[in-house]
């Protein structure tokens, strides 16, 4: 039995819906590539940082890669402030003991 013409017209995707699904797929790929948490609710939500970065990326601007932790992709290592190792902070007990 052949389907009526109105049924085919009713079941096809409208262009607006197709663009939403395409944007969702691009947003998911962006989140995976740049280390953002993917949540469908953040699409078109300019209050979400993930979508803000996605919009900047679509405009061709530089976006930080959150997988690496720095914009250049290089990992910055911790360097202790004290040459003897460890963090001295505001404790000056070593200088008081050394001067005594």
Outline:
By secondary structure, this protein is mainly alpha-helical. The chain has helices spanning 5-11, 15-34, 49-58, 93-99.
Number of helices: 4
Structural class: mainly alpha
Cα separation of the termini: 102 Å
List SSEs in N-to-C order.
Answer: HHHH
Please provide the count of β strands: 0
Helix content: 40-55%
**Which percent band covers the strand fraction?**
under 5%
Largest sheet: none
- Approximate shape: elongated
Detail the poorly predicted runs.
Answer: none
Rg, Cα atoms, Å: 26 Å
Average the pLDDT over all residues and give the rounded result.
77
Keywords:
single chain; about 100 residues; mainly alpha; about 45% helix
Can you put this structure into words, describing what you see?
The protein has about 100 residues and is mainly alpha-helical. The chain is built from 4 helices and no strands. The protein has helices at about 5-10, 15-35, 50-60, 95-100. The chain is elongated, with a radius of gyration of 26 Å. The protein starts with a helix and ends with a helix. About 5% of the residues are buried.
């Amino acid at each position: 039995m052949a389907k009526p013409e109105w049924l085919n017209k009713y079941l096809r995707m409208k262009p607006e819906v197709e663009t939403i699904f395409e944007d969702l797929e691009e947003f998911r790929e962006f989140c995976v590539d740049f280390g953002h948490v993917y949540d469908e609710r953040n699409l078109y939500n300019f209050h979400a940082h993930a979508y803000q970065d996605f919009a900047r990326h679509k405009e061709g601007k530089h976006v930080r890669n959150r997988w690496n932790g720095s914009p250049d992709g290089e990992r910055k290592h911790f360097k202790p402030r004290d040459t003897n190792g460890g963090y001295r902070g505001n404790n000056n007990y070593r200088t008081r003991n050394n001067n005594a």
